[in-house]
Amino acid sequence: MSKKNAFYAQSGGVTAVINASACGVIETVRANRRRMGKLYAGRNGIIGALREELIDTSRESTAAIGSLRHTPSGAFGSCRYKLKGIEEHRAEYERLIEVFKAHNIGYFFYNGGGDSADTCLKVSQLSATMGYPVQAIHIPKTVDNDLPLTDNCPGFGSVAKYIAISTREAALDVASMCETSTKVFILEVMGRHAGWIAAAGGLAADAEGDAPHIILFPEIAFNKDKFMKRVQRSVKRYGHCVIVAPEGARYADGRFLADAGTRDAFGHAQLGGVAPTLAEMIKSELGYKYHWAVADYLQRAARHIASATDVEQAYAVGKAAVEMALAGKNSVMASIVRGNGKKYSWKIGEAPLDKVANVEKMMPRNFITRDGFGITQACRDYLTPLIAGEDYPPYKNGMPQYARLKNELVARKLKKRFKV
Amino acid sequence: MSKKNAFYAQSGGVTAVINASACGVIETVRANRRRMGKLYAGRNGIIGALREELIDTSRESTAAIGSLRHTPSGAFGSCRYKLKGIEEHRAEYERLIEVFKAHNIGYFFYNGGGDSADTCLKVSQLSATMGYPVQAIHIPKTVDNDLPLTDNCPGFGSVAKYIAISTREAALDVASMCETSTKVFILEVMGRHAGWIAAAGGLAADAEGDAPHIILFPEIAFNKDKFMKRVQRSVKRYGHCVIVAPEGARYADGRFLADAGTRDAFGHAQLGGVAPTLAEMIKSELGYKYHWAVADYLQRAARHIASATDVEQAYAVGKAAVEMALAGKNSVMASIVRGNGKKYSWKIGEAPLDKVANVEKMMPRNFITRDGFGITQACRDYLTPLIAGEDYPPYKNGMPQYARLKNELVARKLKKRFKV
After folding, report:
1. How far does chain A reach from its first CA to its final CA, in angstroms?
2. pTM as predicted
3. Do A173 and B284 touch (CB under 8 A)?
4. Is B144 a catalytic residue?
5. Residue A89: per-residue pLDDT
6. Do B265 and A268 touch (CB under 8 A)?
7. What mean pLDDT is predicted for residues A299-315?
8. CA of B184: which chain A residue's CA is closest?
9. Helix axes A308-326, A156-177, angle to 10 degrees
């Protein structure tokens, strides 16, 4: 039996360390070239498979692949594209099988979050459902940290570190200015459903009174009165108030704060996010001068201050996925398992994909303080090791040097095009 | 003659390296204790002098003062408070002299931007105007980089580095996502009048086609048609478009873009800044999916990725200010003078304060490309050395360790209080 080639794709929102997982996959495939063939990366994720746009990673130098470890975002392109169910859209799966067959692909590595786990699960069932033998292994990735059956998700630790540091730094700024100027600072962070990233802002505080003075969570209904009282108390007590707010902050009835129902002169929905909404609210109720920031992509792309732990784990799940494939596994996710000791330790585990797909892991209630505005010691204990260590990229002329791949496509073998 | 004490204050918006200047001042005063007395820092800037709230920096340990070099923002507090003219508000100057006399202060070090240079100039004239002998030396600081008679301003290099890196990182993110999702990314940066910070975004690009594809400048009137065409061209050519926009971007008639005249349901002015305004404009004209970020305080507080050159220069101007005072100078600013050689070099110079105060240095037109959307090679040559080198703070448990001073006030000597 000739050795099979492998397919790898990046899916969904990218992170500072998803390329470290790619690096782990590719270096491990290369280290096992006697047992595994070439590693083809999908150009722009799964779409690359459907379109037969396969990047031949074997044409990249050892150095180029090595530099993926310190390069943020998706070097092969990602996509937001969810495969429908096999019953609904059989043509897509038939196309995948066609492409896999044409390129002798027997391994499928999918690097993504919850939606992607579902896609990976469906591919893992192709053998049973459509008679094409393929082993599908999921490689976890999401800044949202909301995948189940893994202690944490690669990508999250680096965002957490960025948000914790940014909160600490901006808070020092506000503290310097508050006597005559800005009294309230709001940092808007990612997190539509789960508050993990917002929680990480809490790591900025070392002692009583330290910023952030208020954290909002999507899991806790926003209560305007309680919030205003807390802002006022913080300004009175400390001279200023620093707030970390997730994009998914919402009222008890489920309405997002950012969706304030406001309209501009032309009737367009308002532009702002949570931070400007809260700022305006505070200004009109309490009159405090404010500043706000929206970190947006900056937070998940900030490889310059990535967590060393995160980078290591991202690489490790990529490596483990290839090893699982070589061990004959299918329909599993490489997971991170935390040790029980007082000192933080972790190892790679294995989670069944059908238990991972379409499940979101929210913040446990005991990670949030009773008043709903902060994190508990249990949460700090959970988060702290995930941001540990700095893993700086190399610099030239003051700028980080990130990978530039050739990304050469394999020659097409199929005549038929597939429209995505 | 008994040796005189010195007063130091931080003024205006703080930066990632203003404390490095404070460190330079304090360490140099300490090294010259036979000739100069104590260094009192104003609590919250000049207000601290008026209120007789003087921080006795001699009570801080050598290590604590040393750690100021890697601590962002104003460790003694800053203020936005402009002294009026002596004719207008003689009481303020009389109070300053009272406080200076009471604490035997003969040296005045003021660490700030353009407005602060004006305050420092007025204090430098107290000897002539009000008969109180004091030497006033200005220590330049501003992220806006708009002070004249200095090649650049401490604080700017670190913001420039942060914006260049953030642009490069976020651009990789957009490039990964653009096939099926976000096509336009807008980063809003500081700069109300001068485009220096926006220009720094241009350092993200190494080659043709690299982001940012569009930079806006306050110095160049915004032309919506030209802008939209450029956005569209970039998306067609590269699949995406990255834009760096300063808060001060404006129309030919002087109106700021951010002041779109839009109102919410309650008649409040719209919340957004330049980035959301541009995003909404692009969405409604071209239909592209967008993301935007507003860096706000994050950019000027980002000590974690400060420019080593900037830190060194910030320290040097602080040190030089004390040396100038000891050499009997008055009414001068410590400046940075660039060498003429091909290889970047700099040394400390001296600029007359009356030529510095109230003058803003804009981007020269030849630093902006003819089309008004980018930076020229001359601009790159100017900016590149300013972001050179990384000067990482120490970390513990994944977090940067910033100075915590005792900030103990000197016992008051005056009975009279002064209301500020």
Report:
1. 33
2. 0.97
3. no
4. yes
5. 87
6. no
7. 98
8. A297
9. 170
